[in-house]
Each structure stands twice: as C-alpha cells, then as structure tokens.
C-alpha cells in the first residue's frame, strides 16, 4: 500500500493515512505506517509527492521575486514528541490513548491545575500592586532566590546561596540553551578540540541534542542504559566518563532520568562524583522532576546536593513545568555555583549577555505563581501535598500496569518498569512494536518505547496492557 | 574493580596538590604560576589553573574564576542604576515602558478584565504548540495585515507566536542564517538590541543611513543610495512605524520609493513592528507601510510586539510572520521557524497570548483596547507639546521642533553623551546615552523639571 503524501497539513495527512492503514485489507507495510504516522517528507519532495496547483495569488512570482530564497526551503523535520502529540489530537479512534507527552493527567485523563497554583493565581489577580512591567533580564530576583533554595536547600546547609549565580529562564529548554551557550563560550577546550565537548547520556530527552548542537558544543554520548537488562549500564557509564577528555562537560539528569526512569543509587552517585572530580569534568545537572519523582522534593534533590557538597561547581537547569504543572508558562532557572560573590556577579553578567539578544527578559506569569506559592508557608505546604498526590497517582499506575500485564498473561519480566522512577515507563518495546501500538491500537507513545504513565488511568489501563501484551508476546523486550 | 584506580589516583593527587590549592587561591587568575606546579599530576592536558585546581576533592576551585564582568545593558542597565538612586527628584525616561500621569505603570483596564475572565474560566497551563496558540497567531496577523488582506485569505502567511519582538527577531535571524543569508541591514541608528540579536543569530550586521543628525530629519536620499548599493537579495530591517530611537518615519511617498527600490534590488523587507496603535493612536494607520509592501507584492517578514500597545511587557507576547508565494511554501517556512524555536525554548508562554486573544476576538473588548491605547498615545503627544513649550519658554535658542514632530514613545533629543551624563549625575534624570528620552516617563509633575535640566546641560543653546 503506498501513500501519496501531500506536503501541507501534516497532522491531517497522518490521521488520514493511519485510518486508511487501519481499514485497508491485509497488513499495511510497516514502512507505510511509519511514513504515514510522521508524514516526513524527504528533501526531494517535488519529485515524489503530489501537490495542489498554486492558487492565483497577488504575489509577484517572477524569478527575481524575493520569495525565491523561500522557494528552496524544504520541510523541516517535525519534532518527534510534539509531532506525535499532534497526530494524537487529529486521531478520531474512540479508543485512543495519549501516553506520549510528559504532562500530568488526573484519573479522568484531564490536565490538573494544582490547587496551590490556583490559589496563587487568584491572589495575584486580586493584588492591586501587581503589574505587567518587564522583569529584569535575569528575571524576578525573589523568584530566583526561592527557586535556588528549593533546589539547593536552605541557605548555609550545603552551600552559601549568595555564591550561586542564578537567572530565570524559559523553563528547562531555555535553561539548557542559555547554559549551553555559556559553557560553549567559557569552558576551556581540551587540547586538539575546536569545540567544548558535552557528554549526554544514551538515551536522553531528544531535545538535549538539538539544543547543545545549536550552542555549537561537540555533543558526545555516554552509555547509560543497558538494553540487554533494562537497567543502568553502570560500567559503561564509568568507562565512558573516564575516557572523556579531562574537563569535559557532563550532563546528568538530577532524578527520574528521561526517558528511562533509571537513576543511579546513592552509592553509585558517590562514585560518579569522585570520578568527575578526578577528571576535572564540569557537571551540568538537568532537574525537571524535583518533587515529582519520589513525591519528596528533598529526596529528589539528593544527588545535586551531594555533588555540591563535594565541591563541584555545578551548573543546574531547573524546570517548574511538571512539578508545578506550569508547563506552558515556561518557568525555570539556570544557575552556576561560584566560589565567591564577585565571581557570581561576573558569571551572572555573562548569562545576561546571552539572554538579552535571545528574548530580552523572561515571561513573568509562571514565576509570579511560583514566587507566591513559595513565599507563603501555607501555600508551600499545600504545594508539597499536591506534588505528592501527582507522584503517588503515577506510582500507582506503574504498579497497576505491571499487574495488568501479568493478568493478561504476559510472561515478560516487567521488573524494570516497577523499579523505574518518575513520569515514564521505559518499556523496552522496539520501534516496530510502538508503531503497531499506534497504528492498530491508537496508543500514541514515542518510538523508543517510552510511555508517560500520567496518561494512564483506570479507564484505559487494561486496554493498554492488552495492547502491549499483544505486540510483545513471544518477542524480546531486551536487545 | 573499575573505580579503585581512579580513587587511588585521586588520593595521590590530592596529597600532591595540598600545597597547590593554597597557591591557586592566592593566585586566582594567574594561570602560568599554577600550571608550573602541576607536574606531579596525572598526565592530563595543561589548560591553566582550572586543570590542577579541579583535582581537589573539596573546595573545588571554580571554572569561572578568571571571568570579567560583562558590561551592563545600555538600556536595562539604566533601569538598574535608576533604582539604586535615592534622590527624591529622580526621573526615569530610559526604558520604553508607558507610565500614567502619576508616573506609575499602567495596566490597561481591558487587559485586567481579560485576565479575570481567563482565571475565572480555570484555563489550564498545558504546553502550547511550538508555533504557539493558533487563535492568537490568527488574530495577531489580522491585526497587522488587516482583516481583508489577500495574502491571509490565500493562506500563504506563515505565522508563529514569539517571545515578544526580541524573540521573533532572533528566530527569523537564525532562520535566515540557516538559509544562506550572511548579513542583514539595519538603519543607523536603530534599537540597540538589534545588533547583538542578529550577530548572535549568525548574521553580519550592516547599517544603512537613516537619520540626519544635523537637520533632525530622515536622511532620505542617502537611504535610497544605500539601498541601491545593497547586494541583491539582502534582508533589510525596517521599522514599521515610530522608528526607535529617532521617531522619524518615512512619508507615504517615501515608503513607496523604498518599496520600489526594494523590488529593484530583490531585497527582503523585514519589518519590526513594536508600536502599532501606540504611535499615532490608530492601529490601521500605524500598519500602513506593512500593508503597502504586501500590496506591492513583496514577500515580507514581520515581527510584532504586544509589549507597548497592550502594555504586556513582562508577559513577552509577540508574533513572527513570513509572507510566502503560496500556501505550500508557507508550510515549509513555518516548519523551519519551528526548527529554530524548539531548541531555544520549546514553546511560547501562554498567559499573555491568552490575554490578547480574549481581547481581539471580542469586538467590544477590541474597541476598549483601541480607546485605551489611543489614550496612551494622546497623553504622550500632550507631554511632547508641554516639553517643547517649556524648553522654548526658558529661552532656549536651539530648535526643539523635533520634540513634537517625532512619532511614538521617544524624543530623540539631540543631546550629546556628555550632556546625558550631566543630566544623570547632576539632575538624576536617566535616559540612554544617545539622548533618547522616553516620553512615556514624562508627566505633568516632572515636565518642567526635565525642561529646566535639559536647558541647564545644553546651556540654553
């Protein structure tokens, strides 16, 4: 079965193609399903696709038209995660399940505004002194202080907070981007290298690679996940980080590794810390799930705080998207642990130089909310409960999924799913299996076998377990 | 066991480096001294003190110790200096943020109402798409191109929500650089941040003549000459209205000439529209240049900011659009804009865009907005008049005509750098070093004070 790909309107194309695949006779070819699901148009699109004739327009279309530069622009690659989300939205199958994007859903499958967040928003609205003025380039100072305290712990415990250069950012993405530019500019290059190397775990959140490539860093991978055992590839990790040139940048997920949910133990963290110190590596923590991973914000910060206590001058990217449910408000921070206030001022000034020509100053709504919550002891306490509630529901879905898989007769060892931490289950399913799940069962997940547990609830968990069993029965979920 | 060697190594080096740590902290920044004492370390590359210092287990010397303080931002750094000043007479006419006549920030009433509605409706905070909220984008595009714009009807305009004007400029700059553009032309002078934005996007920033300092008017014939000299296909940045900082805009006829030359040279007109509605008080009038160029067949790009006109500064609301030849091309351009957005900030902030959507989707709220925006523009015009009156009343022999003939938020006063510094140090009046005064910061309470101060630093000449 061949699909003609029309270049416009990817989502509709994908949906149409999937429906044809589902209703067609016989098994559609895998290639066709995959192509249809992503509607990726090869660069030589003009030769292989149909396109509607250009309508009469008022544009002057001579060969000297300024649009001639536009004429050579191919279709850009759709984002792997957000593209699937869009396919989900346009799918009309009533059984459809979205376990793709890492956004929390309540037990009815609905987005959930944390009660503490809702109260904070009302308070902001009623505050007569509130306005819409520009934040400083580095953002709302009070918010940054509270955010840093949340991550690093109360002042004086582990580190003197006044020595930490912190800046508000566009959530975690923005923090990684700014951090990447900073490191790319200022970390000394190991001899023989023309770019600063950054080591990123294999696998990792897909956008990490794009971000750090944009900042002109030399993106390298270190082994992280053992696909043969569905556990941490600890020896591979140690070997690769030992072999990295001294003074490389090492990206670590602070907790609830995305996508595997597989974190080092505290003991392993201790040893990793010693190794990185001995190599003079620059540590860059990405913290997107603090509070959300175990339900306990202090516990989720243990690795970060340990490293700081051992003297690492870490860089930290912090996101409040998941733990505060503030996804779309783009609320985060970037921070750098410095030796003294002068150094901190210099570092901060350099961070600002990166932010100003990118977006001038950060958006205030999300940071206003976080500041309001964390300034008020009652709201803070409510917040910790809310966060714990989310973590707890996700943990229960994790257990239920594994039980359901057993109940429908799956003989696989799903122990890794129970052991994993955070929002995702890294199932071990192959890309082919995922494609079938999407094509035949309208279950939308990323092709690395990652399921967002937040998308599961009592209403769909059995269906999902049945489907997973169907595609994995008799096949390996390890490689 | 894997780790033993590393741990042993670590212990050995720690002992050797005990002395080194003291040296390092005493000689912070003195690289050569530290490098010479690292000979007992493991054979790792010599990179400077960071190398040796990082081998300590505790009190790891920082990677950043050698940093210089970067210069403060010329505009926003000014704000920070103003905040530190404790003179009761201080005046902030630096940043282009509107103030009411009491000198306070102003949130448009229609904005407050829209916000109340959004929160009452319990809208969630879910991720927007990479390109942002489609309703917002559609309304934003209609706002600048006009409801009756053929290009919009023909669905050949690619549009994305952006982080206000700055974000849109950066995304388009990066996209241009990806597709073969090596340089961009900006007017001289221009908003200061244009230069680092495009430089960081990977473009060489070139300037075209724009303003004649001697006559305080548009340097039109040189502008046209410079355009004629631009390499074919170059991107030219144009301020859609209320040129920042000069307030000097081309006339309709001059825009027509600019359009003709741009077609001749196959230039890519890129409009920065930060003051639509705010410049003249009339949103349609302020978009006249943009609309003319679309009519004339240019495939332009436009960045819109909703910071000033909607007073949404800190919410970072904007849009970037590209007019393509036909819908398919627009789709492809859109996909490439998204490629640059995702590794920058993934998707844009929701709140401010929701406010704009609530307003522009509702005819009554839109009317309220138009009135309130016009109210801001009118107050500024009033202050222009009063400032000029006051200066002339003090007997200044200099012409202050430009204060009332310039358009938009700023008066490009003509003050020299030294005079601006004197204004700051002697009179606690803060404006940028190019003599650009934000009229939005002028009130009936301070206009006389400002006039006297200007009169003083210019010596009445």
Report on this model:
The complex is a heterodimer of chains A (479) and B (461). Chain A is 45% helix and 11% strand. Chain A has helices at residues 10-23, 30-38, 45-48, 68-71, 80-90, 115-126, 141-152, 171-186, 206-214, 234-243, 266-279, 297-300, 302-309, 341-359, 364-375, 377-407, 415-419, 431-441, 461-472, and strands at residues 97-98, 164-169, 197-202, 218-223, 225-226, 231-232, 249-253, 282-287, 315-319, 332-337, 424-426, 443-444, 450-452. In chain A, helix 7 (141-152) packs across helix 15 (364-375) and helix 8 crosses helix 9 (206-214). With 479 residues, chain A is of the alpha/beta class. In chain A, strands 2-10-9-8-7-3-4 form a seven-stranded mixed beta sheet, sandwiched between helices. Mean pLDDT of chain A is 86; it is low at 1-67. Chain A contains 19 helices and 13 strands. Chain B has 461 residues and is an alpha/beta fold. Chain B is 47% helix and 12% strand. Chain B contains 19 helices and 13 strands. In chain B, the strands form four sheets. In chain B, strands 2-10-9-8-7-3-4 form a seven-stranded mixed beta sheet, sandwiched between helices. A two-stranded parallel sheet of chain B has the order 1-12. In chain B, helix 5 crosses helix 15, helix 8 crosses helix 14 and helix 11 runs parallel beside helix 13 (288-295). Chain B is globular, with a radius of gyration of 27 Å. The termini of chain B are far apart.
């Amino acid at each position: 079965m061949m699909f003609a790909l029309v270049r416009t309107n990817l989502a509709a194309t994908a949906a149409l193609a999937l429906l044809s695949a589902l209703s067609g006779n016989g098994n559609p070819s895998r290639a066709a399903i995959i192509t249809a699901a992503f509607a990726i148009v090869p660069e030589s699109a003009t030769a292989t696709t149909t396109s509607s004739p250009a309508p009469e327009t008022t544009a002057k279309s001579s060969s000297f038209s300024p649009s001639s530069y536009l004429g050579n622009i191919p279709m850009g690659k759709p984002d792997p995660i957000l593209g699937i989300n869009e396919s989900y939205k346009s799918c009309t199958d009533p059984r459809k399940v979205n376990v793709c994007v890492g956004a929390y859903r309540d037990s009815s499958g609905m987005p959930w505004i944390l009660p503490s967040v809702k109260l904070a928003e009302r308070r902001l609205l009623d505050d007569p002194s509130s306005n819409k003025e520009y934040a400083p380039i580095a953002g709302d100072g009070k918010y940054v202080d509270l955010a840093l305290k949340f991550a690093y712990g109360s002042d004086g415990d582990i580190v003197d907070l006044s020595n930490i250069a912190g800046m508000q950012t566009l959530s975690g993405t923005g923090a990684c981007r700014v951090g990447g530019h900073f490191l790319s500019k200022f970390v000394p290059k190991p001899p023989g290298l023309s770019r600063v190397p950054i080591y990123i775990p294999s696998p990792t959140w897909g956008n990490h690679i794009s971000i750090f490539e944009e900042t002109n860093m030399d993106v390298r991978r270190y082994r992280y996940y053992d696909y043969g055992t569905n556990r941490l590839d600890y020896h591979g990790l140690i070997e690769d980080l030992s072999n990295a040139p001294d003074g490389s940048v090492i990206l670590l997920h602070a907790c609830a590794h995305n996508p595997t949910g597989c974190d080092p133990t505290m003991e392993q963290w201790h040893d990793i810390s010693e190794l990185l110190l001995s190599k003079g590596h620059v540590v860059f923590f990405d913290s997107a799930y603090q509070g959300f991973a175990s339900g306990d914000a202090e516990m989720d910060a243990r690795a970060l705080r340990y490293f700081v206590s051992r003297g690492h001058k870490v860089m930290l990217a912090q996101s409040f998207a998941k733990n505060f449910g503030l996804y779309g408000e783009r609320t985060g921070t970037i921070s750098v642990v410095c030796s003294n206030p002068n150094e901190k001022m210099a570092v901060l000034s350099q961070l600002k130089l990166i932010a100003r020509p990118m977006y001038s100053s950060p958006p205030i709504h999300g940071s206003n909310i976080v500041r309001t919550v964390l300034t008020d002891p009652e709201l803070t306490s409510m917040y910790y409960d809310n966060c714990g509630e989310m973590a707890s529901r996700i943990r229960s879905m994790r257990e239920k999924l594994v039980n359901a898989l057993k109940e429908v007769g799956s003989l696989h060892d799903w122990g890794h799913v129970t052991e994993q931490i955070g929002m995702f289950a890294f199932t071990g399913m192959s890309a082919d299996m995922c494609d079938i799940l999407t094509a035949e069962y309208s279950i939308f997940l990323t092709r690395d076998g990652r399921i967002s547990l937040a998308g599961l609830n009592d209403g769909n968990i059995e269906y999902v377990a049945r489907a997973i069993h169907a595609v994995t029965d008799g096949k390996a979920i390890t490689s | 066991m894997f780790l033993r060697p590393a741990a042993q190594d670590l212990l050995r080096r720690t002992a050797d480096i005990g002395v080194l740590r003291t040296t390092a902290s005493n000689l912070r920044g003195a690289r050569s001294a530290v490098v010479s004492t690292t000979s007992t370390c493991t054979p790792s590359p010599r990179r400077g003190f960071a190398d040796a210092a990082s081998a300590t287990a505790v009190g790891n010397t920082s990677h950043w110790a050698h940093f210089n303080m970067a210069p403060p931002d010329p505009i926003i750094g000014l704000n920070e200096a103003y905040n530190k000043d404790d003179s009761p007479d201080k005046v902030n006419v630096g940043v282009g943020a509107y103030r009411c006549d009491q000198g306070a920030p102003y949130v448009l009433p229609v904005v407050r109402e829209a916000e109340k509605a959004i929160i009452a409706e319990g809208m969630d905070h879910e991720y927007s798409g990479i390109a942002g909220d489609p309703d917002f984008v559609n309304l934003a595009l209609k706002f600048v191109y006009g409801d009756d714009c053929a290009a919009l009807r023909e669905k050949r305009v690619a549009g994305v929500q952006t982080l206000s004007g700055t974000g849109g400029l950066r995304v388009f700059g990066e996209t241009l650089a990806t597709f073969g553009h090596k340089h961009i032309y900006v007017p001289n002078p221009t908003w200061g941040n244009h230069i680092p934005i495009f430089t960081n996007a990977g473009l060489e920033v070139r300037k075209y003549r724009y303003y004649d300092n001697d006559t305080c008017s548009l340097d039109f014939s040189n502008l046209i000459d410079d355009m004629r000299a631009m390499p074919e296909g170059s991107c030219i940045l144009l301020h859609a209205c209320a040129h920042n900082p000069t307030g000097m805009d081309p006339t309709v006829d001059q825009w027509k000439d600019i359009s003709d030359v741009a077609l001749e040279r196959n230039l890519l007109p890129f409009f920065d529209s930060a003051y639509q509605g705010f410049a003249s008080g009339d949103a349609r009038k302020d978009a006249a240049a943009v609309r003319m160029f679309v009519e004339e067949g240019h495939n332009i790009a436009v960045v819109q900011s909703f910071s000033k006109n909607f007073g949404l500064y800190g919410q970072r609301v904007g849009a970037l659009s590209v007019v393509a030849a036909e819908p398919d091309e627009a789709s492809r351009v859109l996909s490439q804009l998204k490629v640059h957005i995702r590794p920058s900030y993934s998707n844009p902030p929701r709140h401010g865009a929701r406010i704009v959507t609530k307003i522009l989707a509702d005819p009554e709220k839109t009317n309220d907005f138009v009135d309130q925006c016009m109210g801001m523009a009118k107050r500024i015009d009033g202050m222009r008049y009063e400032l000029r009156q006051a200066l002339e009343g003090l007997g200044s022999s200099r012409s202050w005509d430009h204060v009332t003939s310039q358009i938009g938020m700023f008066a490009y006063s003509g003050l020299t750098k030294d005079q601006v510094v004197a204004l700051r140090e002697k009179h606690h009046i803060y404006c940028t070093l190019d003599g650009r005064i934000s009229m939005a910061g002028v009130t009936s309470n301070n206009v006389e004070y400002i006039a006297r101060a200007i009169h003083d630093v210019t010596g009445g000449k």
